């Protein structure tokens, strides 16, 4: 009997959710809300149902709510910007209420974290929240990370879910297993608005306006109505929506975009699913008039295109990355969603040797070619011919077989810049310290013999000695920004460098409101070749993984 009552309560809640929702369920391009095809059988319009008050219409709403509740197999590739809220809300309401959470916050976070369901991760593995795999199995893809030298691309394995319902449950389980999110639950937060503020304060995201964005989504779609009284029913299922139905549709709100220029020589490849995304003359939704362009018949997966600018597009509180490409160096330029491009994996390593500049007029860049943040020209090597510079770091990329090598060097007021291997001569320690010989002359025979010294140079011995240490340390002075830092531990030493390494709880420190922290030392954990930084919080120093920091 109790189960029947609960099922009935859920049906009423879903009915209210359908009344409050706007729009149909559509199938469209991953980056476009046009060219729509209805996915709901029967084709009943939610808005017309909301406007109707007779018994027949109410019965239809309840029937649709029951259909959605029973359909637990909703997949990420069924989501569009237009149907995201109406599709996710009833499922999230069921999961949240079963786990003492607020449905309003769950839906708002799902919208922001997945770009309203348009991220590749959501479309291909039903992962709404970017939660990584804990067992090494799942969806393996290249992803952007921040480490010792800023942004880089690496392979990561993300959790893959059978359905969106499983992803929502996975998110709820994540909050339950991490005690620092205790104040996000109904038992501690008075409503979804306060829960949104609490989850930012707990360190879920470093964006200072993260809570504001969540609250804007909650208010925009009236998601508080999903929260009800915590039993699965909304507070008002008899809302009169005639006035809403009579209103004229509001003019479309344009997206905003922040642009970062690159250079005209950089190239990337088209991804395996590039044709799923459209080409635009401007970043999508940033202009009232924006023309879409069809892909050329000569375009194919793996084809090389030029890329010279990136844009971070913000629309309905969600941020997505776009690139400006062309099919020839001086060809027409078009904007496309980032998932249409395939950036190569960049491997970074340390090197204690030097390079010599081959000549003037070689180019110095802000970054390596082939990274998602693109590379800008910084300066030319005018007057630097024949000068030697210590290597700060080495980066290699492999595209279709050939490997390209880049060196990071420090040049006066320019600071750290990158130069291509073709523009320098590598000067190793053995060249600077050649193996010497010692002549011994015999007075009696007047013959000269040669005695060789050890083949291991002083530099080589020092390198061997260093690798035997659990950690290497380097001078570092600067600042970074905490990023999803709650996933990483604070330590009094780099793990593995001492016998008694202690972890410090985040609850014992006060995190700056702007998340900016001072860094006074850098370390490399030798065994795993991972980067660590010593940061200052409340006048005390702590070691933390480089993955917990952003560098601007």
UniProtKB/TrEMBL annotation:
Pfam families in alphabetical order: Glucosaminidase
Gene3D superfamilies xrefs: 1.10.530.10, DNA polymerase, domain 6
Keywords carried by this UniProt record: Hydrolase, Signal
InterPro entries assigned: Glycosyl_Hydrolase_73, MGlyc_endo_b_GlcNAc-like_dom
Sequence ranges assigned to domain Mannosyl-glycoprotein endo-beta-N-acetylglucosamidase-like in this UniProt record: 73-227
Ranges for region Disordered: 432-454
Stretch forming the signal peptide: 1-30
Highest taxon above the source species: Bacteria
Family according to the record: Belongs to the glycosyl hydrolase 73 family.
PANTHER family: PEPTIDOGLYCAN HYDROLASE FLGJ
Full protein name: Mannosyl-glycoprotein endo-beta-N-acetylglucosamidase-like domain-containing protein
Protein species of origin: Apilactobacillus apinorum
């Amino acid at each position: 009997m109790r189960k029947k009552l609960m099922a009935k309560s859920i049906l009423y809640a879903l009915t209210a959710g359908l009344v409050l929702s706007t729009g149909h369920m559509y199938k469209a391009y991953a980056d476009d809300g046009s060219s729509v095809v209805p996915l709901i059988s029967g084709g009943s319009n939610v808005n017309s149902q909301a406007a109707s008050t007779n018994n027949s219409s109410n019965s239809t709403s309840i029937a649709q709510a029951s259909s959605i509740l029973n359909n637990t197999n909703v997949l990420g590739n069924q989501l569009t910007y237009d149907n995201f809220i109406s599709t996710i809300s009833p499922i999230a309401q069921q999961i949240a209420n079963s786990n003492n959470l607020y449905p309003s916050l769950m839906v708002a976070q799902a919208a922001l974290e997945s770009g309203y369901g348009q991220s590749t991760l959501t479309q291909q593995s039903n992962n709404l929240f970017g939660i990584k795999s804990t067992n090494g199995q799942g969806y393996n893809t290249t992803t952007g990370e921040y480490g010792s030298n800023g942004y880089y691309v690496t392979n990561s394995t993300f959790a893959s879910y059978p359905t969106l319902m499983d992803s929502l449950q996975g998110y709820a389980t994540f909050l339950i297993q991490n005690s620092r999110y205790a104040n996000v639950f109904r038992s501690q937060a008075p409503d979804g608005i306060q829960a949104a503020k609490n989850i930012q304060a707990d360190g879920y995201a470093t964006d200072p306006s993260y809570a504001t964005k969540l609250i804007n989504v909650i208010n925009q779609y009236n998601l508080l109505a999903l929260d009800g009284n915590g039993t699965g029913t909304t507070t008002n299922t008899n809302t009169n929506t005639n006035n809403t139905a009579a209103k004229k549709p509001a003019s479309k709100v344009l997206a905003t975009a922040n642009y970062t220029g690159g250079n005209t020589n950089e190239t990337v490849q088209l991804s395996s699913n590039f044709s799923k995304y459209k080409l635009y003359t401007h970043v999508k939704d940033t202009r009232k008039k924006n023309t879409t362009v069809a892909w050329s018949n000569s375009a194919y997966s793996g084809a090389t295109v030029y890329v010279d600018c990136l844009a971070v597009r913000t629309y309905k509180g969600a941020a997505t990355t776009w690139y400006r490409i062309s099919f020839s160096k001086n060809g027409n330029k078009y904007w496309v969603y980032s998932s249409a491009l395939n950036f190569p994996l960049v491997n970074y390593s340390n090197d204690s040797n030097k390079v010599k500049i081959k000549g003037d007029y070689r180019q110095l860049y802000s970054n390596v070619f082939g990274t998602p943040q693109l590379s800008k020209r910084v300066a030319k090597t005018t007057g630097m011919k024949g000068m030697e510079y210590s290597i700060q770091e080495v980066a290699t990329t492999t595209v279709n077989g050939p490997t390209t090598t880049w060196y990071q060097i420090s040049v006066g007021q320019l600071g750290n810049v990158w130069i291509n291997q073709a523009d320098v001569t590598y000067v190793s320690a053995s060249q600077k310290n050649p193996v010497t010989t010692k002549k011994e002359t015999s007075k009696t025979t007047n013959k000269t013999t040669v005695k060789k010294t050890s083949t291991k140079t002083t530099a080589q011995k020092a390198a061997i000695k260093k690798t035997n240490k659990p950690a290497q340390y380097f001078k570092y002075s600067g600042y970074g920004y905490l990023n999803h830092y709650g996933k990483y531990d604070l330590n009094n030493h780099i793990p593995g460098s001492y016998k008694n390494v202690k972890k410090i709880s985040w609850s014992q420190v006060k995190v700056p409101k702007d998340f900016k922290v001072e860094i006074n030392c850098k370390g490399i954990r030798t065994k795993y070749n991972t980067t660590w930084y010593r940061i200052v919080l409340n006048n005390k120093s702590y070691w933390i993984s480089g993955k917990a920091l952003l560098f601007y």
